[in-house]
Write a structure and sequence with these properties.
With 142 residues, the chain is α+β, with helices and mostly antiparallel strands. The protein contains three helices and six strands; from the N terminus they run αβββαβαββ. It has a single domain, classed as 3-Layer(aba) Sandwich (Aminopeptidase), CATH 3.40.630.30. A hairpin with an 8-residue loop joins strand 5 and strand 6.
Length: 142
């Protein structure tokens, strides 16, 4: 067993160095891949009007699930069906990749009700994140 008291130095930073990020990601991927093949692939869906992107969603699929990491629609386009059309495309991407489902997180002041109407279920929540609001973790089976 290694003596952890000898020569140990613990440091804190307010940023993440790329070399540290690489060590963490490479280590986690190597460990996790001994249990299951990740098959990670990014995706993006965009909506353009007159050569300007007015809505987009980005994320990835891995471990047989698709993850929506970011989903943005300009305010003036939020109530005209663009969100639903983007989500339909995301569902098709998940099906094409043989995913079991889709998951995401959203804040109380964002789009929880929209996702519920689209068939997502809340499977977890954190109170006061940020203060005065809830953060929801949601999923949809495919």
């Amino acid at each position: 067993m290694t003596n952890l008291n000898s020569g140990i130095e613990i440091n804190r930073f307010n940023s993440v160095d790329d070399s540290v990020k690489k060590i963490v990601w490479d280590g986690l991927r190597s460990y996790n891949d001994t249990f299951y093949v990740r098959n990670q692939m990014d995706f993006s869906v965009t909506v353009q009007i007159d050569d300007k992107i007015v809505a987009a969603a980005i994320g990835e699929s891995k471990y047989e699930w698709l993850i929506i990491q970011y989903f943005y629609v300009e305010d003036k386009f939020r109530k005209n069906g663009i969100r639903s059309k983007i989500l339909k495309e995301i569902v098709e991407i998940a099906k094409d990749r043989n995913c079991k489902g889709i998951h995401l997180d959203t804040f109380e002041f964002q789009a929880r009700d929209f996702y519920v109407k689209q068939g997502f279920n809340v499977f977890g929540e954190i109170d006061d994140h940020p203060s005065g609001y809830k953060r929801y973790f949601m999923k949809m089976s495919i």
